[in-house]
Amino acid sequence: MSSAASVSDAPFTVKALTANGRVNPLGIGDEDPVFGWQSASARRATSQKAYEIQVGRRPGSADVWSSGKVVSGRQVGVRYEGPGLEAGTRYFWRVRAWDGKGAASPWSATAYLETGLLNSGDWDGAQWITRPAAPSDLDKWTDYTATVDFKLDSAAFGMFLRASDASNGYMWQFNVTGPTPMLRLHKQVKGTYTVVQQVDLAPYGFTNAGLLDGRHTVRYDVAGTTIRTTLDGKPVSTLTDSTFTKGYIGFRTHACCGERGTVYDAVVTGADGSTLLDTDFASGRNPFTGGDITDSALVVSGTTDALYGPTARPQPLLRKDFATEPGKKVASARVYASALGLYELEINGKRVGDQVLAPGWTNYHKRIQSQTYDVTKLLDGGDNVLGASLAEGWWAGKVGLGWSRQYGDTPALVAKMRITYTDGSVQWIATDGSWKSADGPYAKADLQDGETYDARLEPSGWSRPGFDDAKWEPAASLTSRTALLVPQSDEPVRRTQVLQAKKMTEPTAGIYVYDLGQNMVGVSRLNLTGSAGQTVKIRYAEVLNKNGTLYTDNFRSAKVTDRYTFAETGTVTYEPTFTQHGFRYIEITGVTEPPALSDVKGVVWGSDLPATGTLKTSDGMLNRLVSNISWSQRGNFLSIPTDTPARDERLGWTGDISLFAPTANYLVDTRAFLSHWMADVRNSQYANGDLPAVVPTPQGQFGESGVGWSDVMITVPYSVWRSYGDTRILRENYPAMQKFFQFVRDSAGPDLLEPGRTTFFTNDWLHLDDPTEQGILGTAYYAENARMMAEVAEALGDETAASDYGKLSADIRDAFTEAYVASDGTVKRDSQTGYALALGMDLISDPALVEKAGSKFVAKLALTDHHLRTGFIGTPLLLPALSKIGRDDLAYKMLLHKDYPSWGYEVVSGATTMWERWNSIMPDGSFGPVDMNSFNHYAYGAVGDWMFQNIGGLSAIEPGYKRSRIAPAPGGNLTEGSGSLETVYGRLSSQWSTDNGAVDLKVTVPVNTVAEVHVPTRTRSAVTEGGRPADAAKGVRFLRMEDGAAVFEVGSGSYSFGVGPVLGGPGETGRTAVTR
């Protein structure tokens, strides 16, 4: 076929080109990317027999590399084998292929990939810059008298003295959690607290109730090595200690016990009589680094270190004036940038790029992502300005359990702009000391607590030419971290959708609550009207209290509050930039009139992964369940795979994604996203091969892991490979996978039983009073890890290891049966999860014993009227285990329950995302345990894997769906179902309906793949395709009868199978047990 032929006219064409799993990626970091594409043909059973790839610096050129004609059916993970790609360069590429008849396709449409800056040398000349530190007055804070008018609201309230920062200084805590009130004197050195004295306040006439009642005044006289404390005029403590000689005052609470205090007035007088601090908060401005100003008082709660001093400054702005070279025309312009913290760029007053929360969260001690922006259209001839807003983000803001400064304390920017002119010359602009800096309008910006935007502080036109920056300071340089920079390899976080408020209520006068109708992750977008100096407060919640007010107790220490202060009277649109919330409801206060519904929106954020899967049924509840699973995936795939987007956690829990990845791989294309995250998993691996429980791992938080969690080192690369067929993720992770498996192997005894490794995560997380033997969990995962490692080793050509892992897996399964399965089929401890693992993971090899264990499993479920009791580990295998023993009927019964506890119960209770717990809301309307109760948590959404396989009928026999299984299993009350999946080869789909025993099944199979189609019937002869006997249909080949279905092999194309009600149907019998 001529290469000039029209693609649309050709019978065999190539389309949907990807590099590293992405379409036209900008700023990749690989010198040897992998290519992929799809093919299209109107003919059935079309396959690819050969391909040719051309890569060039111009469209249609092969001046960089040509593969030549390669005889192969590969379309996925095809490796580039040309010379190493150069930094900051766009490469164009195209593909043509030959079908099974030897006919060549036309060349595909040209795609491109563009490299970012690939190594530290490419960043030469670019410094890490920030706003200069404020002049320190720390030397004045040596000896002083501090007087604080306060109220102890609950539990405990701490006050800092002589604190140079939030990790070093004294902390006096008033505590009413014991039988009598206590003053507990601490000193903190490098973040570690030590109690140096405890004073019982009861002998001084104080009681717990009295200390909680009303306002009190505490005075600290700090002189030399002595600190004297007076409470309500009574001297209560004198301490002599020389650890700290100077430092600020501040306030401190922790979320663990509901600590909270209110400060009404704080006055500090130096030994020379000078006033160091005098504030009653009446102005609304907060001179401390934390806390919230409410009614002219500072409220401190949750996990908060609120320190006075130069750190209590707005987030910085940076700008650089530059001019393009006179007489030249710009051909292209790129900005390469990254930050410690978060950044957003502007050129000539216009925002650069469409991503948010850049550079994303990684293990900043090991790698920091950089981004590439095409800014060609933003430049003007002549004068230009490149500006940047910075915020603390994950770098210095609150992370995990509300702890800040986990990586550093100062946001900074690094950037290089390359301007290429039509004459081939190049101009560079880089971050250095010539940049200017100033305070910006973001008075506060924290991912957990929210954003405070004071429009009065925004310099008008600051990122445009002509702005007078004479009063701005030269930027300061920080220690270079350029060696840690790597181009971002996955899709960035973007605005992906906008939701309109559906309802407004006023549960209390002046408090307006808006319902978006959907729990989501992102920020609000509000049209607000106010007068100069007026402040509007915006709060968020996932659910409401019974009285219609926001329920926020489950947010723990996260403040989740935004504030906007007007610079002038009028109407503005406010959309936060440097925070992120999980919410359905928006509360607005501080407005004269409530905004109209049309003025209140929710802007959905998430890692912008391509949607790939759909699943629909005739049951509305199940359709809502699929939607809930999808929304939880979207909300928790935000730079990393998190556990919950709303409270003070938002961590990359390894167990959650380990269990949910197979479902996620149906919903979206996870290749780049999970491959990127696995780099941080590898970087976090301990010397012994084990992993922390969360990745990235904040200091001192969840460093220990356990069964089902650290196994992510194997399960996620395996799952991604099975779903997409690209061995690259296996090659990248194989050494770390082997190292982890050896850790598990060493943890097991010579009897091959694995006791559970660590005790940080014991048992089946959040099960409902149905514990599982720890050794069952450990040994089950040991066996499955060995099975997966055998497949991985074989895929990578490591035959010796594959044989070893395979034999070991079989031996572990035998050991499991011997230790944990009785002769009558009882699995030790008789838990739902124990049976789900034993049967779902094929841990029992004897068919007779499988049947007995299946009977025990069914009997166990009957004790709860077939309601689940499983936790995170057991739930994904619960329904698959029932299907494997031929009890799809019970699987559907459990899936379709609408009473507590069940998936359907959440739906009928109004959930629009998955809950963390089965009892997040009880039938009486009360909320579950407040310490851990997220309403957007995808772990229990792992049931989606079973739903896609059994209702949608889609699963992979070979990695990447090169050979697929289309086997819908109609059941329950369902009369219709459909599933579709955009595989790496193209669209795979099924659509079925049943009526009085008749079955109609329509399937579509992508080019260059084969599918085994299971048509429910009692007899092969009852099946038709396209109205004729299936055996006679073109491209259809009968394979076998299996589990109440006729199995046909088909190549690519669309097919319509049918079974009449008289000739046969699925009948009422379940499937027979299937064993490995």
Number of strands: 62
N→C terminal distance: 46 Å
Helix content: 10-25%
Beta-sheet strand percentage? 25-35%
Could you tell me the mean pLDDT?
95
At CATH level 3, the topology of the largest domain is Glycosyltransferase
Poorly predicted residue ranges: 1-8, 1062-1076
CA radius of gyration: 31 Å
Please state the structural category.
alpha+beta
Shape: globular
CATH architecture annotation name of the largest domain: Alpha/alpha barrel
Helices, by number, come to: 15
What is the number of independent domains? 6
CATH class category name of the largest domain: Mainly Alpha
Report the sheet with the most strands, covering strand number, pairing sense and barrel closure.
10 strands, mixed
What's the gist of this structure?
One of its GO terms (molecular function) is alpha-L-rhamnosidase activity. The protein is an alpha+beta fold and 1076 residues long. It contains 15 helices and 62 strands.
Structural write-up:
It contains 15 helices and 62 strands. By secondary structure, it is an alpha+beta fold. It has 6 domains: 12-116, Immunoglobulins (Immunoglobulin-like); 141-273, Jelly Rolls (Sandwich); 314-449, Galactose-binding domain-like (Jelly Rolls), CATH 2.60.120; 493-607, Jelly Rolls (Sandwich), CATH 2.60.120; 613-948, Glycosyltransferase (Alpha/alpha barrel), CATH 1.50.10; 953-1059, Sandwich (Maltose phosphorylase, domain 3), CATH 2.60.420. The strands form 12 sheets. Strands 34, 35, 39, 40, 41, 42, 45, 46, 47 and 48 form a 10-stranded mixed sheet that branches. Strands 11, 16, 17, 18, 20, 21, 22 and 23 form an 8-stranded antiparallel sheet that branches. A 7-stranded antiparallel sheet has the order 49-54-55-56-62-58-59. A hairpin with a 2-residue loop joins strand 55 (986-995) and strand 56. Helix 12 (875-884) packs antiparallel against helix 13. The radius of gyration is 31 Å and the shape is globular. 53% of the residues are buried.
